[in-house]
Batch of 2 targets.
Target 1
Amino acid sequence: MIKTLVLISIITFITSCSSAPEINPGKGAVYGIISAESHKAILAKASKENDGIYSGLGGLIFTDQMVNYPKLKELFVCLLDPSFTDGNDHLLVATDEGMSHKSLAVGKGDRLTIQNDSSDTLTFFLAGKEDEIQIFSPINTGERSSLVLEFEGDLELGSDENESMQTTLLSRKGLVGQQHSSGEQYVFENLNPGQYKILFWFWRLGLIEKNIIIKAGENIELNQILSVDKILGSKNEP
Amino acid sequence: MRKNRFLLISFGLFIGLFGVAEANHLSGKVEVEGGKELKNMIVYLEPAESLSNKPDPMVHKVLQKGRRYNPDLIVVNPRDKIQFLNDEDREIDHNIYSLSKFKNFDLGLGERGSVLEIEIDNIGSGNFYCSVHRMMEGRIVSINTRHFAILEKPGNFILPNIPPGNWVAKVIVFHKRYKSIPINISLSGKAHENIELKVVKK
């Protein structure tokens, strides 16, 4: 029995660690675990109290009305690579239940495509600062429309006809993003040596920015937990 | 003669203290291009020139019963305070925060019965949330005037007690597809009616 528990603990430990990617000659990489957690004050109370949502062991018993941080699925890790000029492609699907994505990290110059699987014709727009606006052509049911993103910053994708069809976008020049669930590993590999900026973002919490220097033949491990207190406590690097 | 002079001085003092002309109302309607039923637009009058006398600070209260912010749209002025009262029926904790550029704050653990407060520094707007409960979301809008009205849908509005002077009438629209066209208005002691404010597509 004890042997089994030890074995389970070892397996859990190994699988929870992020594994370093293989290094190609002259290249480097950055990798780590992205996760989200509750505010430290809530966690502190959870370690003392055993009542309601508090487990008494530092954990929380999540209800449908709560933000379930360990199960968040739209955490983004983004690398800002000034040399990256090729646009990426992103597909969003609109259905009668809403958009496939609540949030999306994109690069200026990326192509956004919307597939309309809802029962109505929809006209989408992309809004940025002040008067910045890009309009998709109206999309009939079963069809799709695309545009190349022209703006940077915090953007909103919405629909003229249905205000519940909404996606929050984080857009930066040279951004290459990866979407992960909380606790998953991210990897950016085959990077040329140089200075990069890395962003960790969840739409409801905001983002943490860090500068990294990639060296040839080296891996950088950078794990990041997103929480309200950690984001407000971090000083985003210029 | 002496009595008349007294009356004249008294009248002059009254005018000096309370302004040449009395405050009056401004009314009109907001029209949205295409007839779109936009919700929660804020009509407001901003002084055309910066005012030397800023309005006295106010305290606004936001309740949280049922895991909802009430109100969830708060219009304030710089120097105002907002108090968040946890008035839940049972032991429910909240953590109110905002990560907006306009005003970021983290009020920590807000237990039942707690009153947590922030002070507004600037004009602008930003959303606030509860980090525990996913449906708890609100918005603070800070403007430089107390003369405003929140419209649940496009239509008529009335702004009472507007002092004479030069004003700019504007509409804050949260739907990002639309913007408003400001109008300059000169008020001179009588009611100003039938103002038409246009909200158009960008």
Target 2
Amino acid sequence: MGSGESPKVGVFVCHCGHNIAGTVNVEHVAELASEFPNVELSTHFMFMCSDSGQALIREKIEELGLNRVVVASCSPRMHEPTFRKVVEEAGLNRYCFEQVNLREHVSWCHMKEPEAATQKARDLVRMSVARASLLEPLEVKTVSVEPHALVVGGGVSGLRAALDIGDRGFRATLVERTGNLGGNLAKLSTLYPNNEPAKDVVDRMSLAAEASENVTILLNSEVTNFDGHIGNFEVTVKNNVTEEESEMKVGTVIVATGFDPFEPIGYYGYGDSPDIITLSALEEMKRDGTVLRPSTAQPPKNVAFISCVGSREEGVKGHEHCSRYCCTAMAKVAAELREEADEVLMLYDDIRTFGKGHEDVHRRARQEHVIFSKYNKKKKPAVKINDSGIMLKWNDVLSGENCEFRPDMLVLANAMVPPEGADEVAKIFSLTRSADGFFNEEHIKLAPLTTHTAGIMIAGAAQSAKSATDSTTQASGAAAKAVSLIARGEVEIESTVASVIDELCSACHTCVTACPYGATSIEATKGVEVARVTEAKCHGCGTCAAGCPSGAIVMRHSTDDQISSMIAALLSSAFVHGGGEK
Amino acid sequence: MSKKIFDPNIVAFTCNWCSYGGADLAGISRIQYPTSAKVIRLMCSGRVDPVMVLEAFKNGADGVIVSGCHIGDCHYSTGNYRTQVRFQALQTALESIGMDPQRLRLLWASASEGQQWAEAITEMTEQIKKLGPSPISGRGKK
Amino acid sequence: MTEAEKLATLSQMSPTQTALVIGGGVSGMQASLDLADQGFNVVLVEKTPSIGGAMAMLDKTFPTLDCSACILTPKLSEVARHPNIELLTYSEVTGISGQAGNFKVKVLRKARKVLEDKCSGCGDCVEHCPIEIPNEFDQGLGFRRAVYVGFPQNTPLVYTIDDENCIKCEMCVKACEREAIDLAMKDEEVEIPVGAIVVATGFELFDVSKYPRLGYGEYKNVINALEYERLINAAGPTAGHLLRMSDGKIPKSIGFVQCVGARDVTNQVPYCARVCCMYGIKNAVMAKELQPDNVKNVTVYYADIRAYGKGFEEFYNMAQTRFGIEFIRGRVGEVAENPKTRNIEIRVENTETGEYLQHEHELVVLCPGILPPKELRVIASELGVDVDSDGYLFVEHPASNPVDTKVPGVFVCGCAEGPKDIPDSVAAGSAAAMRASITLAKGGEV
């Protein structure tokens, strides 16, 4: 289809079962849309994304010669790729597709106002039809993929990922900030559910990684600069000891930056007594030998644990999440301490021993007569410290009784929180973060390993708090994503980049200063200075186009005309209909 | 016409990465808010040309929201710094043409801030209801 | 390609370039895609007529309430259209021999009686079929004919004739313009050489009637959670209308009973099923969302709320604050029916207050745990892979090698290894693909 052809728009309104149709009158929207300019066909269907929905779109494109397609369904963040593929299969350019979000932006957030929601749906469809009429086909470009992966973080996740990529026959460079491999796992004694020593796990993987000819390990190193696109990223890694910087090209990245154990300052007297320690500190003690009461260097006789320290705190930013590992870890170590200690008490809110073998760990703790007591979430346990030691007071929810216990050691099951430097990592790799502070996956259900930045994967605790097993599972999975990119050797990239209309450019340099990537420059062509866009560097944000005082920059797929047409389509209708019709 | 309840029409420019995601999350979390705002999705809030904002007002918008990632969190590293600077210039421009600057709002909303998105739309809708229809829209006179 | 050509091709696969994935649920689908995307061939064997597994039956997913079909459907198409994936639905693995790099897999192609290469999925045959039987996909709540697809997104979109119920009237044969129906079709067996194997056989739902005191099967208004999913699903037997079985009324009060067939040593399910707390909360929220004006009370009876995953705790909080779901900590002792109203009385001790409660609900939903599927043991023994005490596949080094079985070249993902939710199953699917691809790339060398 040439760009000169007059637009023939097809509008497909999706019911999404009840999701949209339960609130929005989709039949009515489809009917109204048939009157919009350039609309050749407007129809509705139960599930546009289903095979039969997709077939309907393809069929209508062929039957009616549609050259622009508008699907009014869910968020384009979910299905834009799906529908782009559909129109492509029918011979249209993928950029001739436009999606309207009637679900996340209409039916789900205006459930109690079906009429107003239907009107908003109508307006949004009108806007998109206007834009669709102005959409231009763009050339689809592919780039080669550098057969080399960067793995950020040398904990179990990073190790697993690097090893898998190496074993598969491709190069991986693993960058670790500290001087050691193994991350937080290296600080643990033994692991649930099978009591495997953490050291064995770390050794098994780090020795293999060191032996692998495909894996390069850079310790004491950090990524300081990162540029480029999927397939061709340029990375600068700095060694923090030698201060040397090295540069490399990679095709894909796995971010496995893990977590930090939460330092629970201000919680349960932490810091006020040497005998109040975190679960992470207890594990380190166990790893190094025996557990001794810090103040006396004697084995503790009465030990208490408190769960959810820095986790599950509703309304406290960065601490609302469950840390997923602590219940089982706590039950395991409580049972082990019971072999020596007279009494071991575990104060909990819910026992979340959910994973494979976790209930066995939980049951064993009960068999060992670890005392389990459910505390009151609204009135958490109180810790007092005086000359005679630690006094723990709480309300046992199940008996309703107020209880007291004098532990000679109190262990706080501290949360997993995003590691120091997560801000930097997010910035470097353009990752977004969820409310808990961990990095966002592309889709929480079906795309837990890829991110919104093409070519960049996340794995392990970088994505959310989790155990070693769940982390290495994600790591192998993320490695699969990296490896498929490399194995294919090339990848399609977005064509939505800026370009310059030479005749309009006054070489004012506004775009040069506006571009975050140095993609624009001023060059002399035929003796006249004009702006140039280096397409490979352009990320398509459009900041240059917005700033250009001469309108000389065309932002492909987001042109001034396309945007203005949406504004006009919305507001001209307001004049006609008098705004809100009520 | 005079009996009609005034239902503001707000043009909301959002970036694709943070704010559009935040608006998605509001829906996913089933947070309810007024139907006034109609989103125009751009890749970056830095794509919002001040001319487009003025065009929206000129066409009769009762309000305009420009929404992007928080400063420092921009998917395009620094695009939203531009947004901020342009926003300030726009506010001055609005004042000088006699348009209440409260009709234009800059909103930083991340992909995890569905609640903030919904609250901002609700607040702005209320505010504009108080201000009445845009003087340009021609709907102000009974 | 005709069936005969397809089988001939399959028997000639190059083992070092081909992996077998057993099970077409979300985990097996992901494993297949991640292997196929690397350029390897994948033979995906699924015993039911469609891929999609349990996820296809779900209405919404936690913690975002995304509709399951919406997010799954594109994956179904992706698998079906992938040039490197050979989809064998309505088929079963019956034998495995050999070793990494060179396994021989026997696959039984059950006679579908419909030619896959000819059926266009138009459904013209359906209305001519005189037989109506309960639809397994709808948990028996709706009906299907003897020629059927379980659900509209059935992938591949090919009809199947259920031989057991077919009366050979040949009405469908006459109705099919494409001559795609062949009632004389016989089961066929094919031996396929493959280099690596991924086991993704999923789970079976615990049979809640094993707790007679909870009234399932005896009282109409006691249903299980998967039946509830189908009831609230727009494509389900009630077109998404939440109603109770006894009288078709919208239940004003619903009770959800957690841990039915989980964390119970006496019923041989000592482990936590990992998904029920969250799907229970999700279903509770959905009742309020679907019928905000009619459903007045929704109560969840639980032992511990295990909201462990990303966004789960936040969802649990939202269920309480935004949707007003009530949570009572206590294992339900027994239920009884009020014979007049057919309402269900739940007897439970609130362990947080010590109160003994008798709560009446118009509908009670039992939230079953999950079990390893029956055939897993057979497949495990064919493969020479151990099962653990809970009946799932054994993994020797879960911390470092979470998807490796003890048999080289054989990997496990999803619920075949133990209960998992969707994202954990998807991640494990990708992981198994990664590990299997190493075996293939090395030509089976360990």
